[in-house]
Design a protein that fits this description.
Low-confidence stretches of chain A: none
Structural class of chain A: alpha+beta
Largest interface: A-D, 41 and 39 residues
CATH topology of chain A: Mth169, Chain: A
Radius of gyration of chain B: 16 Å
Number of helices of chain B: 5
Largest sheet of chain B: 9 strands, mixed
Number of strands of chain B: 11
Number of helices of chain A: 2
CATH topology of chain B: Rossmann fold
Strand order of the largest sheet of chain A: 2-1-3
Helix content of chain A: 25-40%
CATH superfamily of chain A: Phosphoribosylformylglycinamidine synthase subunit PurS
Strand content of chain A: 35-45%
Number of domains of chain A: 1
Mean pLDDT of chain B: 94
Strand order of the largest sheet of chain B: 2-1-3-4-11-10-9-6-7
Largest sheet of chain A: 3 strands, antiparallel
CATH class of chain A: Alpha Beta
Shape of chain A: elongated
Helix content of chain B: 10-25%
Oligomer: heterotetramer
Order of helices and strands of chain A: EHEHE
Shape of chain B: globular
Order of helices and strands of chain B: EHEEHEHEEEEHEEEH
Bound molecules: adenosine-5'-diphosphate, magnesium ion
CATH class of chain B: Alpha Beta
CATH architecture of chain A: 2-Layer Sandwich
Number of strands of chain A: 3
Mean pLDDT of chain A: 91
Strand content of chain B: 15-25%
Chains: A alpha+beta (84), B alpha/beta (234), C alpha+beta (766)
Structural class of chain B: alpha/beta
């Protein structure tokens, strides 16, 4: 999707969803352990989250989509980027 | 007693759950797209991968039309049991507190687990003899129960932690070894292990039968309330 | 332009394209002749797939015809999407094994996942509901990072698909051998159940009927996959094949299965066929060929996932989770309604004709006309040119080799050999693998993996089905004929250990390039053994698959015939478990077990030359299996386990570990028994470490370790040789009478030590 | 992690991983079908990917990490954002 143009009238949006601070992130931990084993030193604080990319006619609705479906506010934080 | 077993696209254990529930009542399938509970006194949301577990386990299923009716039954005090994916759906739907996160091993695991009774007064354990431990299979990749510290304290205080994995058996990394929780009223319970796979001698353990047998008393305890649609059964 | 809209090809251009698509010059000429004119591009693309090794079985069809495929229980034999057997009570069981070797070597997760999806749709195409999956896996040595990556990806892929689609994975097998390093094997077997009258055929019938495509949309998945991925040697540069990776969607698979079976239940299906390799091309060709009809297909009506797909792409796409059915035109509306209920997209894409041709349209425009007979039946078949290898010079005698290493302390030698075997990746506990699979869904599982030698599934009538899948490429490499017999016998032995008699089998022939003389010889020997062995066992082969060209720059894989067997038993036997039932039971060795260290796992661990396999007495082994089944059925046994990789000592340790109960045996009695039955390498008077090693770690078919009350064991001696060798109890595995220096020496291994060694695979799945 | 400062000497990096164009994206499809059912109309082209956030001493190594571990180049594209 990167670099692509959205369809006429629509806006490209990106939602980044990450585990809330303080909640164990085993996926991040697994990556953090695997990297040095492959010879990549000097990596700290790895976190794995989700990215959802969509094209929306009305970008003001993305926040509501996140609250209702895309993220679970109990365990996840989200961030919306509008890419135009 | 009529037990409704919900079937979503991607449900897997609904047939086994219907078979197990048939031993204690009349079990009927509830189709996700229908708002109708077909007169069920209790509802079970079975295991599987509703909507492929895509996005988050249970996240999409909670919006199915049938869930509105399940929510009404729960609000009226009727018994609702979520097993595995059903537990995930109930958490996502806000009918149960907390969330289920990927196992710490990040792998699916299918093994028998021993369970300790944490709240013997739960109607979902009415048939479990005092002091008994249960052996029931668990099989999931997203079963690590999580609740923030404050919520956890409340759950413990109110007796909403119903079952725990025995020490050393919490392979998914659940907080406080929690295997099953209920809502505050006690009429909605979610559990990760699968009682429907432990109902016959040939299954290696028949302890799961106790959970289904308990449904009868759970309905008896709350049935009138459910029929009357009276908000809370507390 | 011979056929409307598709570009015609000049003869030179046609030949060049044909060569690029994997056809030979002769094949191209034959094709032009059978087609009646040079094919256009679309037609050529379709021919090249149907005439590929994968679809056309060019190098194996003649051989496969020699396999026994008939029998009283056979309901559907080879030629359909899967075979099916009558299992009594009005039920049939379908079975089939498939390989997804090359896709898995390129992308193990998706390759294995789509392998599961593919075999399940073969089972569904027969109108049967999938009931169980088994997997057979081969990788390079786990010391290689690539092998560990492939293993992890394939296991995750099988778990992802199988668990999510909701079919129990109840068994399988796993070996690590260097020749699979760059060409792993991922074979998946499935079975399905239905009432006999529910069975469906893939034969398209009734001109005027509608062709209904349902399931996932068609994208550019696996374009060229059938010819490029399945029939050419993997290039070192796997990356060149990127765009052909197919992605499995088990959620869509789950809905598709339910939808197809709901269509079956509504009696709407005149024919049903899955879309696998070569997509619509192969599915439609086969449906038309089986029904002796033609089909008109309109690519414009195929629901697409991507814009701008070429007609040829639509016809060869290998997008997963699709099936095609023949439905009477007046019932199409009803079929579409069922699809909608299951949230499965469906479209009428064509119709049955009496033209005898596949005609491909883009709306009104005719793009190609292909005679079905030319596509399916006229693919050239090749005789293999087998070339037995020059026999390798006999290696140094094993006995000498071990004696040199033995030093002065036989118990310590044997102890370290046993622990090394238990920890060997080919023997160690598979629990870290199979616990990643849901073995319970469906509610039929009576014996989970590792509880017994075969999986057991309950049937509604109180009986049970037993399932096993086996293969040992290294031993087949050592002697393709005997090795393949051993594979069959191992499968049947596993069934016998749960008391089940085999009623049918499916096989997957994983071999290298059949145009090499030695590979051709391996294939011929192996198929000859399959035929002989199946006849001796009375087992028909009702389905199977062939996977050739399993090679890398390092050469061909071990020849790896994999056999899946189905057994039926009237009622599950209590004693059908590996683990002992309780202390105090007697322990006996049953059967004409003639162990040898030749080509054994111990020889492999020691890096010794593989030098053939010991002789085997087929009739005696079959008789021992019969005796074991009878003993189990009579309730005389408390446990049963066949002696396989790692020999008697490993089998014994497995019984101990499965139950947590110790055992004590007297090796002198074992040697006496072996001498009595004439085991060549344990001749009377054999003494010392080499005899002990052969008795404890030697391999060969026909041996079972059973436990029970002493009286009921000794009574059962009819039918097969039997010797009480010890008893169950204690906290350790104790082997007395080891001989050699320190004649009175005994070997004692704590259960915890056995357990620690046996857990070695856990580290591969962290 | 958003808005947070990286440790001294380290650079915050974000890797966005998405299914390659043309490769089936079952998750994206499931979300795309769910949104209208919740009343969110006018959403097109939903894709679900992963986001990995890390702090690295040497940002020039992130590309190699993606190739070798973080992404599966057979079925996924990735994009690296350095956040300073
Ligand atoms: N090794 C074999 N032994 C017996 N039957 C086989 C073997 N290989 C293939 N067959 C049969 O040949 C037919 C074609 O196989 P295949 O092309 O793999 O089917 P599909 O396209 O449905 O996967 C099937 O009926 C299959 O069971
Ligand atoms: Mg098929």
């Amino acid at each position: 999707m990167a670099g692509r143009r959205a369809r006429a009238g629509a806006v490209r949006a990106r939602v980044l969803i990450r585990p809330k601070a303080g909640i164990l992130d085993p996926q991040g931990g697994a990556v953090a352990r695997a990297l040095p084993a492959l010879g990549f030193e000097g990596v700290h604080e790895v976190h794995v989250g989700r990215m959802i990319e969509l094209e929306v006619d009305d970008p003001s609705t993305v926040g509501a989509m996140c609250e209702r479906l895309l993220a679970n506010p109990l365990v996840e934080d989200y961030e919306i980027e509008l890419l135009g | 007693m009529r037990i409704g077993v919900v079937r979503f696209p991607g449900s897997c254990d609904h047939r086994d759950t219907i078979a197990a529930a048939s031993a204690v009542g009349e079990a009927v399938e509830l189709w996700h797209a229908d708002r109708d509970l077909r007169g069920a006194d209790a509802v079970i949301i079975p295991g599987g991968f509703s909507y492929g577990d895509y996005l988050r386990a249970g996240a999409i299923a909670r919006f199915a039309p049938v869930m509105e009716a399940v929510g009404e039954l729960a609000a009226a005090g009727g018994p609702v049991l979520g097993i595995c994916n059903g537990f995930q759906v109930l958490c996502e739907a806000g009918l149960l507190p907390g969330a289920l996160l990927p196992n710490i091993s990040l792998r699916f695991r299918c093994v028998d687990v021993r369970l300790e009774v944490s709240n013997p007064r739960s109607p979902f354990l009415a048939a479990v003899p005092a002091g008994a431990a249960l052996r029931i299979p668990a099989k999931h990749s997203i079963g690590r129960y999580y609740a923030p510290a404050g919520m956890l304290r409340e759950l413990e205080e109110r007796g909403q932690v119903i079952l725990r994995y025995a020490p050393g058996e919490s392979f998914n990394g659940s907080v406080e070894r929690i295997a099953a929780v209920s809502n505050a009223a006690g009429n909605v319970m979610g559990m990760m292990p699968h009682p429907e796979h432990a109902v016959r001698e040939r299954d290696g353990s028949a302890d799961g039968r106790l959970i289904f047998a308990s449904l009868r008393s759970a309905v008896a305890a709350t049935g009138a309330g459910a029929a009357a649609g009276s908000g809370s059964a507390r | 332009m011979s056929a409307g809209g598709a570009p015609a090809l000049s003869p030179e251009e046609g030949l060049a394209r044909a060569l690029a698509l994997g056809l030979s010059e002769q094949e191209y000429e034959l094709l032009c002749e059978r087609h009646g004119r040079p094919p256009n591009l679309l037609e050529l693309a379709m021919y090249s797939l149907m005439w590929s090794e994968h679809c056309g079985y060019k190098h194996s069809k003649l051989l496969l015809r020699t396999l026994p495929s008939a029998g009283p229980a056979v309901v559907v034999g080879p030629g359909e999407n899967a075979g099916a057997l009558d299992i009594g009570g009005g039920l049939v069981c379908s079975l089939k094994v498939e390989s997804h070797n090359h896709p898995s070597a390129v992308e193990p997760f998706q390759g294995a996942a789509t392998g599961v999806g593919g075999i399940l749709r073969d089972i569904v195409a027969l109108g049967t509901r999938p009931a169980a999956v088994l997997d057979s896996l081969r990788f390079g040595l786990p010391t290689s990072a690539r092998s560990r990556y492939l293993l992890d990806g394939a296991v995750r892929g099988i778990a992802h698909y199988g668990n999510c689609v909701g079919v129990a994975t109840v068994g399988g097998e796993l070996y690590f051998e260097a020749p699979y390093e760059r060409n792993c094997l991922v074979n998946v077997m499935a079975i399905g159940l239905a009432r006999r009258e529910e069975l469906l055929s893939s034969a398209a019938r009734g001109p005027g009927n509608t062709l209904l495509l349902f399931g996932a949309r068609t994208g550019r998945d696996g374009i060229g996959g059938a010819s490029v991925l399945a029939s050419t040697t993997l290039a070192d540069e796997e990356h060149a094949q990127r765009p052909t990776v197919q992605v499995g969607d088990p959620f869509a698979g789950n809905k598709l299965i339910d939808c197809a079976l709901a269509l079956r239940d509504a009696q709407l299906l005149i024919a049903l066929q899955d879309l696998g390799a070569a997509g619509l091309t192969s599915a439609c060709s086969e449906m038309a060929a089986k029904g002796g009809v033609g089909l008109d297909i309109d690519v414009a009506r195929v629901p697409l996932r991507e814009a701008g797909m070429e007609p040829f792409e639509i016809m060869v796409s290998e997008s997963q989770e699709r099936m095609v059915a023949v439905v009477a035109p007046e019932r199409v509306g009803q079929a579409l309604a069922i699809c909608e209920r299951y949230e499965v997209e469906a479209a009428a894409i064509g119709s049955v004709t009496d033209s005898g041709c596949l005609r491909i349209f883009d709306s009104e425009l005719l793009l190609g006309t292909l005679p079905v007979r030319a596509l399916v039946d006229e693919c050239p078949l090749y005789e293999l040119r087998p070339q037995p290898p020059a026999r390798p010079a006999p290696a140094a005698s094993l006995a000498t080799g071990t004696e040199q290493r033995c030093g002065a302390d036989p118990p310590a030698q044997l102890r370290s050999a046993l622990l090394a075997l238990l920890a060997s990746p080919n023997i160690a506990s598979r629990a870290p693998l199979f616990e990643q699979y849901d073995c319970l869904v469906g509610g039929r599982t009576i014996r989970r993996p590792a509880e017994a030698d075969a999986a057991l599934l309950a049937l509604p009538d109180g009986g049970a089905l037993a399932l096993s899948i086996d293969g040992n490429g290294r031993r087949v490499a050592a002697d393709p004929y005997r090795g393949t017999l051993e594979v069959l016998l191992e499968c049947a032995a596993n069934l016998a250990c749960v008391g089940a008699e085999p009623i049918g089998a499916t096989d997957n022939l994983n071999f290298g390039d059949p145009e090499r003389g030695e590979v051709a010889w391996q294939l011929c020997e192996s198929v000859r053994a399959l035929g002989d062995g199946c006849r001796a066992l009375g087992v028909p082969i009702v389905s199977g698959n062939v996977s050739l060209y399993n090679e890398s720059a390092q050469g061909p894989i071990h020849p790896t015939p994999v056999v899946g067997m189905l057994g039926r038993l009237e009622r599950p036997c209590a004693g059908a478990r590996i683990g002992f039932a309780g202390a105090g039971a007697a322990l006996a060795l049953l059967g004409p077990f003639a162990p040898s260290l030749r080509s054994s796992e111990l020889a492999r661990l020691r890096g010794e030359e593989q030098e053939g396999l010991p002789e085997l007495d087929l009739a005696a082994v079959v008789a021992a299996q019969r005796a074991l089944r009878a003993a189990l059925a009579q309730g005389r046994l408390q446990s049963a386990h066949d002696i396989s990789d790692g020999g008697l000592a490993v089998a014994l340790a497995e019984c101990v570990l499965a139950s947590g109960l110790g055992a004590r045996i007297d090796l002198r009695r074992v040697l006496e028994h072996l001498a009595r039955i004439g085991a060549a390498e344990c001749k009377e008077g054999a003494r010392g470490l080499s005899a002990a090693e052969t008795a404890l770690f030697g391999e060969g078919p026909g041996g079972f370790l059973v436990s029970g009350e002493e009286a009921s064991l000794t009574e059962l001696a009819a039918g097969a040789p039997l010797m009480i060798i010890g008893g169950v109890g204690g906290e350790a595995l104790v082997i007395e009478g080891i001989g050699g220096p320190g004649e009175e020496g005994a070997l004692a291994l704590e259960i915890s030590a056995l357990r620690a060694a046996y857990a070695s695979l856990a580290e591969l799945f962290t």
